[in-house]
Amino acid sequence: MSWEEQSVFVTGATGFIGGRVCERLVQARIPRIRALVHNPRRAARISRLPIELCPGDLLDKGSLREAMGDAKTVIHLGTGAGKAIPRGTRNLLQVADAAGVGRFVHMSSVAVFGLRPPAGHESEDAPMRRTGNSYCDNKLRAEQMVVRFRNRLPAVILRPAIVYGPFSGWGPGIVQGYREGKLVLIDEGRGICNSTYVDNLVDAIFLSLANEQAVGEAFHVTDGEALTWARFIRAFAELVESEPHLPSVSSAEILRYHRNQPGIWRSSLRETRRLLFGTEFKELIRRVPLCDRGYQRLWELAQHLSPETKQKIKQRLGGVSEAGVVKSANESRYMPDLDVCNNLTGTVTFSIDKARRILGYQPRISFERGVELTAKWLRFANYI
Q1: pLDDT value, residue 315
Q2: Does residue 129 sit in helix, strand or coil?
Q3: pTM
Q4: What is the DSSP string of 348-362?
Q5: For residues 281 and 345, which has the higher predicted lDDT (pLDDT)?
Q6: For residues 340 and 335, what is the distance between their CA atoms, to the nearest angstrom?
Q7: DSSP 38-75
Q8: Which among 149, 196, 202, 230 could bridge 153 via Cys, Cβ 3.0 to 4.6 Å?
């Protein structure tokens, strides 16, 4: 019996990729689709579909067994935070193994190589590497869990990179960032963007379900186009302004900026001072009658001080301005964090030769068409 005739269980069904997988399964007329729903409030997109919404939690094996039911095909898109990523994957593998699942597709990521893999990591044969980044290292651990089950469970591993399309955070993030002046290119945007339109990724998932040669293998999945981050970012910024101004900052400048930031103790003390002497905290504390009386008394005493003394006290209390905001030397300029810097300055173009050869994968939707389709959704959702 082919997978199209069996029950399919989807984890991460309320997410961006999971929602599209559920839609495509319905379009493929799969007779029974079971969707794991951890938070019903996030299920609006898939609740309109003729599928079974199954409450459960990847960290609770009992709920997983009930949610999976008699499904013999599992598409694992669920994630989590930190160590919940490999723990949830392990639980699902154990439940799927006990249930005699016939195909298990695990959505991994090229993040198993780190946010900025070195040259030589173009193919699936490159060694996975821990880098200290929580997300990357836990995705690596989750994939290793799948590998340990390969003699017991027919599993296929897919590794996309930057997945975009309707309901993705990439389009809204770039549009909003441009409007707020928080969108910059790093090193002129020369870094490689290994993008994948969501429907191309779903095609790869479906091919993995039907191909016996895919079992036990890992595949990179991209759109197969040589794309820079400048081109990717500019394509979405142009939806806001026909000729967007995209300032550039060098990766060396970003590194220098973050090296000069105060350590965790100094920054914690600074933010504590900012909180204590900020307007919001002052308004809250003055709701307490005794505190309000004390504040009024301090304010009266302060009126007898000279302007110079008042300014010195403010500076000693954390550099608070007249508006109650701590001033920063870089407050007028947006500076990306180090993870963003690493992600947007990678030089590796991941190869999809293996996916083409074994899966028969052929990206159907080009980048230009993918942006066009995403733009239609952005307009529908009132982002542009």
Answers
A1: 56
A2: coil
A3: 0.82
A4: -----HHIIIII---
A5: 345
A6: 10
A7: S-GGG-HHHHTSSSEEEE--TT-HHHHHHHHTT--EEE
A8: 149
The Cα 371–Cα 166 span in angstroms is: 9
Token output for 113: 């190589």
Whether residue 269 is predicted with pLDDT greater than 90 in this model: the reply is no
The rounded distance, in Å, linking the Cα atoms of 306 and 309 is 5
pLDDT at 323 over 50: no
Residues facing residue 107 across a β-bridge = 158
Domains in the chain (CATH in brackets) are 3-246+347-380 (3.40.50.720), 251-338 (no CATH)
SS3 of 324, please? coil
Q: Which of 108, 96, 77 is nearest to 13 (CA)?
A: 77
Examine the pLDDT at 301 and tell me if it is beyond 70.
yes
Radius of gyration of the chain (CA): 25
Residue 51 structure tokens: 């599928």
Task: From residue 237, give the alpha-carbon distance in Å to each of 229, 321, 368, 371.
Answer: 12, 35, 14, 11
For residue 42, what pLDDT is reported? Answer: 92
